[in-house]
Amino acid sequence: MNNLALIYRRFGEPESVLQAEAFRCDRLNPGQLRVKMLYSPVNASDLIPITGAYRHRTPLPAVAGYEGVGVVIDGPTELMGKRVLPLRGQGTWQQVVDCPVDLAIVVPDFIDSVLAARAYINPLAAQLMLKLYPPQGKRVLLTAAGSDCAVLLGQWALSAGAEAVYGIHRSAVHAGRLKALGITPISQHDTAAIRAIANDAEIIYDATGGEVAELILERLPETGVFVCYGLLSGQMFRQQKQVRWFHIRNYLDAMSADAWQGQFREIWPKLQASSVGDATLFSLTAWRSALACYREAGRIAKPMFRFSDD
Is residue 198 within 8 Å of 221, Cβ to Cβ? Predict the structure, then answer.
């Protein structure tokens, strides 16, 4: 069976090192299933490893992409033809993906395929953080509030009983959407407002690091908890005792297959009831356009590969 994949053979900027390569699929290994991909999104978590940030655990060559949805075309009879998330196996930016049977997540009928393609990285991270650092009755502050993960964190924190949720956004285009979701928007350029909110914040979910993190930590009470789950600014910040680091990969190896499946049984109804924004679809061969869309300032729609046209 033929396959087309976005592969990188060295580390560097994705636009420079990614290349589309065609090849024939190997024979399916025991305990695996094979999926014909439908959709796969473009996330920061897909692009960062390509730069070499995690080179110690990224063997080359590698297929890019961590999440997506497709239809089972080979494997256990009971899964044939079903939509699944083929996770924690091969990279998902390719037409055909193999993954372990017990780690494939069957998609419920009530979930649209475009939504299902986005059900792993950001929803699972948000769900785990909210379990580890519960927001009930607390004042919550989000950074990079227009990002997919922060939007879910804000909505789910409110559903979990947060007293109030504030969201620091870089682009004014996000303000209206955040307000409609019950999240009080704060411009990243309004340092006075950030300081004022940080004075009373009890939980911070931070995806940026850098100057914004420094600004918040200057005013955060000693009883506050600062959960850092990303460094979108590319800059570190001074460590303080309130800081907690969250990396989703640190929880996966210790998670049993049953617990893994259980996480998604929780995610599906919450994701279905949430606002996640639109998607802009690209063919795999138009990957440069997809990456350019991802990097657009103030972008609202999620760039996503649609494989049916390739």
Answer: no
Beta strand 203-206 with 184-187 is unpaired
Q: What are phi and psi of 66, to 5 degrees?
A: -115, -20
Question: What pLDDT is stored for residue 309 in this prediction?
Answer: 54
pTM above 0.70, yes or no: yes
How confident is the model at residue 50, as a pLDDT? 96
Q: Give the span between the Cα atoms of 300 and 310, in whole angstroms.
A: 25
Give 197-240 as a DSSP string.
HHHH-SEEEES-BHHHHHHHHHH--TT-EEEE---TTSB-----
Return the closest-CA partner of residue 58 out of 106, 9, 125: 9
Half-sphere exposure of 52 (CA within 13 A, CB side): 7
Using the 8-state DSSP alphabet, how is residue 60 labeled?
A: S
Q: What is the mean pLDDT of each run of 10 residues along the chain (310 residues)?
A: 96 97 95 98 94 89 97 97 96 98 97 98 98 98 96 98 97 93 97 96 96 96 95 86 93 94 98 95 97 88 85
For 258, counting Cβ atoms within 10 Å of its Cβ (0-12 exposed, 13-18 middle, 19+ buried), the class is: exposed
**Long-range contact set of residues 49-53: C-beta below 8 Å, sequence gap at least 24:** 50/8, 50/11, 50/12, 50/13, 50/14, 50/17, 50/18, 51/11, 51/12, 51/13, 51/14, 52/11, 52/12
Check the CA dihedral 21-27-32-33 and report its sign: positive
Amino acid 310: pLDDT: 42
CA-wise closest residue to 188 among 158, 203, 210, 218: 210
Q: What is the DSSP letter of 76?
A: -
Q: Let me know if 198 is exposed, middle or buried by CB neighbors in 10 A (0-12, 13-18, 19+).
A: buried
Task: Characterize 19-42 residue by residue with b for buried, 16 or more Cβ atoms within 10 angstroms of its Cβ, and e for exposed.
Answer: eeeeeeeeeeeeebbbbbbbbbbb
pLDDT of 238 reads 87
- The residue type of 84 is V
> In this structure, which amino acid lies at residue 293?
C
- Give the sign of the dihedral formed by CA 144, CA 47, CA 26, CA 95: positive
